[in-house]
């Protein structure tokens, strides 16, 4: 049994065990623990997030980029949540979400909402 007060609060449900919001791209990513030696209590870090292949992400529709659009605005329109822009980036296999709207007339795949 642990005597760590923070861990005890997590186990009691007073502190969430996952620090990321439900709409975060890191929500279900596992944590690692880096230790320099056996006596080191360690530093937690987020493990790598693997993205599904583009062909494996179901697409709801395509959007044609128009002037003044941004990835967060596309997400707000498509998902009613601007912070889900990363889903659109994943569906289009871009690492920089701004690439999605940099080119007028670009076709941007809008993925299906999870569970929808």
What this model shows, in words?
This protein is α+β, with helices and mostly antiparallel strands. Helices cover 23% and strands 16% of the residues. It has two domains: 5-46, no CATH class; 55-111, Membrane-bound Lytic Murein Transglycosylase D, Chain A. The protein is built from four helices and four strands; from the N terminus they run αβββαααβ. α2 packs across α3. 14% of the residues are buried.
Features:
single chain, 116 residues, alpha+beta, Membrane-bound Lytic Murein Transglycosylase D, Chain A, 2 domains, two-stranded antiparallel sheet, 4 helices, 4 strands, 23% helix, elongated
The helix/strand series, from N terminus to C terminus, equals: HEEEHHHE
| CATH architecture grouping of the largest domain | Roll
Query: Order of strands across the biggest sheet?
Result: 1-2
Q: What name does the CATH topology of the largest domain carry?
A: Membrane-bound Lytic Murein Transglycosylase D, Chain A
Largest sheet: 2 strands, antiparallel
Stretches with pLDDT under 50, minimum 5 residues: none
Terminal-residue CA separation: 41 Å
Estimated helix fraction: 10-25%
Radius of gyration: 19 Å
Total helical segments: 4
Q: Regarding CATH, which class of the largest domain?
A: Alpha Beta
Shape: elongated
**Beta-strand percentage range:** 15-25%
Structural class call reads: alpha+beta
Mean pLDDT: 88
How many domains make up the 3D coordinates?
Answer: 2
DSSP strand count: 4
């Amino acid at each position: 049994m642990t005597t760590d007060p923070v861990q005890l609060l997590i186990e009691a449900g007073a502190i969430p065990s996952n620090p990321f919001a439900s709409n975060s791209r890191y929500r279900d990513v596992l944590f690692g623990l880096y230790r320099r030696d056996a006596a080191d209590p360690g530093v937690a870090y987020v493990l790598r997030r693997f993205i599904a292949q583009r062909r494996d992400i179901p697409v709801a529709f395509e959007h044609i980029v128009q002037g003044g659009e941004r990835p967060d605005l596309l997400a707000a329109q498509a998902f009613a949540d601007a912070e889900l822009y990363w889903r659109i980036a994943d569906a289009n296999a871009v690492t920089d979400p701004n690439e999605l709207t940099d080119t007028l007339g670009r076709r941007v795949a809008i993925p299906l909402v999870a569970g929808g």
